[in-house]
Amino acid sequence: MTNPLPGLKGSPIGEPEMTPPGSGADIGNTLSGLWQDGRTLIEVEFAYHQARLLYAVDRGKHIGMLLALCGGFAFCALLTAIVGILLALAPLIGPWGAMALVTFVCLALALLTLMMAVRRSRDLKRNFIGMDDDQNGGQA
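Predicted structure:
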């Protein structure tokens, strides 16, 4: 009867070939395999941290954009406070009322974008703390 599985000796049910200690196992091959596994682990860790850094840079761009937008709205609030005195709303609600209304709206928009930037930066921080907790078994 022929063996259906090449490389296996013994009965047709496939008992594996056992090599006696010291006859075929080479310590050099084992160390080489360990070295390759270590290299692979280091490469994977490097790629993981590189991906984390790229994620943080991308999120940082959005946070910076929102902070710049917040600064723009704050500048508009100052500008509209000056222009609000001269606008045609002065006859309807008075010059001080027009200035207060326009200034309040621009400051509200500046506060809104600031809150959005703070929330996104907290989300980014929470994501990184969560990733570190997962790696450390939930302990900080």
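Summary: The first helix runs from residue 27 to 86.
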